[in-house]
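ok, trying the design again with the full structure, not the truncated one.
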């Protein structure tokens, strides 16, 4: 009785499995097939966590609305001084963040409406203003009075310069 052994040559078009790689089984194929629609729907429907927010480039406000909101938002930003003086750090941070966010949008819209030649200096003042506001936030978190007051002075002077140019 002569039994012929059939030698199987590896298919060059398939990836080579290492010796310890598990071959695909019926169970893994079923699990993959069942999980695919769930994963696909989660990837397609869920909002991206790191997605871009184009609100600053396409503002919801007109220039006139931004100009109307500019002074009240600037006043609320300056009024954070009372909370800083009473050392109500958490409240000061909350008010600072809220008023700075609203003011930031208004100023950005107004700067974008200005002629190109004016924008550079306005953007520098804008950056100086909101960097100082961020530093106040961090200093309040650390309860560092000297840093808070240094940055508050910088923020107010930058705000005055910026408002005079707008």
């Amino acid at each position: 009785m002569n039994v012929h052994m059939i030698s199987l040559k590896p298919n060059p078009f398939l990836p080579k499995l290492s010796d310890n790689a598990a071959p695909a089984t019926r169970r893994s194929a079923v699990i993959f097939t069942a999980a695919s629609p769930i994963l696909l729907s989660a990837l397609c429907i869920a909002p991206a966590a790191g997605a871009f927010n184009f609100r600053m480039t396409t503002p919801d406000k007109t220039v006139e609305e931004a100009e109307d909101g500019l002074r009240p938002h600037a006043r609320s930003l300056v009024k954070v001084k009372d909370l800083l003086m009473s050392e109500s750090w958490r409240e000061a941070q909350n008010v600072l963040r809220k008023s700075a966010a609203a003011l930031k949008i208004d100023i950005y819209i107004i700067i974008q409406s200005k002629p190109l030649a004016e924008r550079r200096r306005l953007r520098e003042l804008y950056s100086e203003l909101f960097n100082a506001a961020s530093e106040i936030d961090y200093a309040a978190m650390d309860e560092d009075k000297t840093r808070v007051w240094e940055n508050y002075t910088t923020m107010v002077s930058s705000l005055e310069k910026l408002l005079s140019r707008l």
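Keeping the full-length input from now on. DSSP finds six helices and no strands in the chain.
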